[in-house]
Amino acid sequence: MGKFEDLRQQMIDYQLEMRGLRDKTVLDAVKAVPREEFVPTELVEFAYSDTPLPIEASQTISQPYIVALMTAALELKPEDKVLEVGTGSGYAAAVLAEIANEVYTIERHRILADSARERLEKLGYKNVKVLHGDGTLGWPEHAPFDAIIVAAGGPDVPETLKEQLAVGGRMVIPVGSSLHTQKLVRIRRISETKFEEEDLGSVRFVPLVGAAGWEDETATKAAETIAKAEATLPELVYESSEHFSSIDEVNLDKLMERIGDSKLVLLGEASHGTAEFYDMRARITKELIEKKGFNVIAVEADWPDAAHIDNYIKGNEPDPLLSKEPFSRFPTWMWANHSVLEFTHWLKQHNQTITAANQKVGFYGLDLYSLFSSIDVVLEYLQKVDPKTAEIARTRYGCLMPWASEPALYGQVALTKQYRECEQDVVSTLQDILEKRIEYTRADGDKYFNVQQNARLVANAERYYRTMYYAEANSWNQRDQHMFETLEAILDYRESHSNNVDDVKAVIWEHNSHIGDARATQMSARGELNIGQLSREKYGEKAYLIGFGTDHGTVAAASEWGGPMEVKQVQPSHIDSYERVCHETPTDNFLLPLRQAYNPETKKRLLVERLERAIGVIYRPDTELQSHYFYASLPRQFDEYIWFDETNAVKPLTKESVKGLPDTFPFGL
Question: Superfamily assignment of 3-229 in CATH?
Fold first, then answer.
């Protein structure tokens, strides 16, 4: 299959079927329609994203799930004649035409009607007729219709459309007394005079404008009323938040009270390249260590790289097993930056005040991208403690060595059967190490734990690279599952060396998309989970999730994977986003409690899903809405939200930038 066919199948698997849509007729129809032909050229790469996309006349093409849901609700048969109100791009009409015998579709914007007609004709949909006109009046010349679908929200169900519905026919339409939200209803015509109505759930559509819908003036006034009502939300956020002028001066006492006796505190970031996020996480972590006894820091970094920092802050001499320079792979600036450097120096000084080795703060990496550096650690360790097993492991790991420079290619060639899978080889090595646990730990328990985690990482990374080419959600889930299992292994290990398991508490540093509960975001609809969800499922209220956000400023990011770091301008937030609500709050920086909200009305108003921005190591301002925004419910996603209205890019470490600094060992500079 080609690129778009693959994306279309993924859309069906994760956006439709995972949400419970099982109507094979509808799924086959969606699969047959090339959605990429119905979106603007500049947005083609987002054609199969789970989100509405802008088209001409300030309208949108509905997200695929809504189109499929409404189509399924029509219960179409091959001989049916269908009326669609609101042609838009023509995409939904094409889906309908794949099932029904005749489709009549009406669009009030001439530019949309003309372009949809041309597009549908070009794609060979001869059973579709397009009319420029008032859709609320229907198309009486071709009535009655077996099914009517309305892609806009009206104040009530137009009688004109009900009259054009055949006996036994079905109509699906969003209805609501305000333009803010509607309910999706299905109308069945039982007889000439009798209709039955069924509520299919809450939705939000553009207004149904026309003689039997909203008037243009009414729609405008209603929209203004809604905007005015929502303008008070920033005031509620202001009243419900704790304001601060700077990271150094912020008082975190109340935050510590809200965290209470949590075992896990998950600290997010809205980008991988923003200094304020790193510095605030460091400030919070210091207080958690000093005031609440937290002693584990687990971060979104590779295990061998983080082991350098762990070794350094515990005052050990450089371990020969950790001889390679850490954080040397893309994106180097994510951890090799001045904010992290300063924090590691503080951790080292703190640990020097602690006598017992098992009580020192540890620094651990949770990620799984260090496939080949982890192999090196395993082989060097085995060579010292068990040369015979080392030789066997070297042969087994040799299966992966052709792909040392580009491990992602291994997954591609294994998938296409051009190269054998290495799963059994890497799993067998891990099993050998686990079986010799007692023998190996006699020498050094810490070193054994380190090599065990590296061997487990190799096994999980091999599986991750194999699945990333055919199951996007599965590869994401494997990565976050690995990170959570690694966290659990760290906690178990530290607890086994502690006098009281309750004394072991962890701070996790990862992106918002990992630490915010996936069930409160679009990720869930794609079948994706994350470490935030897994933490809540196991630890409940003992896990405290803190997200971060910003409106504008600069960020360190690349334009493409593997590209050079650039300092980019962060665009002001989207008007329909949580970030815009926070930006309009009359203060620059604040902490917003969500689990223990000061004002229940604030939390209630914030529960309504809005857009939320996520910038990773790549930032594409020119396609920001499609590349970096997703829908979420903030109070369900996080227990607390920390806001910086303007932020600055992290400062990466270079040999020149650290000249004169007394100790940079963890970063090998």
Answer: Vaccinia Virus protein VP39 (3.40.50.150)
What whole-number distance in Å separates Cα of residue 520 and Cα of residue 473?
16
The residues near 83 (Cβ < 8 Å, ≥ 6 apart) are 104, 105, 106, 138, 139, 142, 143, 145, 147, 148, 149, 161, 164
Give the pLDDT of residue 373: 85
| DSSP one-letter string for 63-104 | PHHHHHHHHHHTT--TT-EEEEE--TTSHHHHHHHTTSSEEE
Structural contact between residues 119 and 38, judged by C-beta atoms closer than 8 angstroms: yes
- Respond yes or no: is residue 62 known to be catalytic: yes
Q: Is the pTM of this model over 0.90?
A: no
Do 104 and 145 meet the contact criterion of CB atoms below 8 Å apart? yes
Among 90, 72, 87, CA closest to 27? 72
Structure tokens at 622: 């020119």
pLDDT tens digit sequence for 351-404: 999 998 889 999 999 998 887 888 888 888 888 888 888 888 888 888 877 766
Cα 20 → chain centroid: 21
Burial of residue 300 (number of CB atoms within 10 Å: 0-12, 13-18, 19+): buried
Sign of CA dihedral 458, 461, 467, 473: positive
Distance, in Å, from the CA atom of 376 to the CA atom of 362, rounded to the nearest integer, reads: 22
Which of 62, 271, 339, 633 is an active site residue? 62
Whole-angstrom CA distances from 75 to 28, 204, 218 are 14, 22, 33
- Hey, what are 364's tokens? 């651990």
Averaged pLDDT, 233-259: 95
Cα–Cα nearest to 95, from 56, 66, 57: 66
Q: Interhelix angle for 445-467 vs 303-313, to 10°? A: 160
Q: How far apart are CA 221 and CA 38, in angstroms?
A: 31
Q: Which residue has the tokens 């996603």?
A: 637
Tokens of 514: 């990992």
Q: How far apart are CA 426 and CA 458, in angstroms?
A: 7
Q: How many CB atoms lie within 10 A of CB 131?
A: 18
CA 569 to chain centre: 22
Helices in 497-576 by DSSP H: which ranges?
A: 512-515, 522-525, 531-539
Contact in structure between 277 and 271 (CB atoms under 8 Å): yes
Residue reference for tokens 């970096």: 628
d(CA 206, CA 121): 26
3-state class (DSSP) for residue 280: helix
Q: Kindly state the helix (H) or strand (E) to which residue 393 belongs, with its residue range.
A: helix 387-397
Name the residue with tokens 């090998």.
668
Does the bond joining 52 to the residue before it have cis omega, within 30 degrees of 0?
A: no
Question: Which residue from 263, 264, 247, 344 is spatially nearest to 301, judged by alpha carbons?
Answer: 344
Residue 571 to residues 294, 554, 577, 579, 645, Cα–Cα distance (Å): 36, 9, 13, 11, 12
Q: What does the longest C-alpha to C-alpha distance in the chain come to?
A: 89
Encode pLDDT of 189-237 as tens digits. Answer: 999 999 999 998 877 777 788 887 776 644 445 444 444 444 478 989 9
For residue 657, the one-letter residue type is S
Nearest 5°: the CA angle 149, 611, 561 is 110
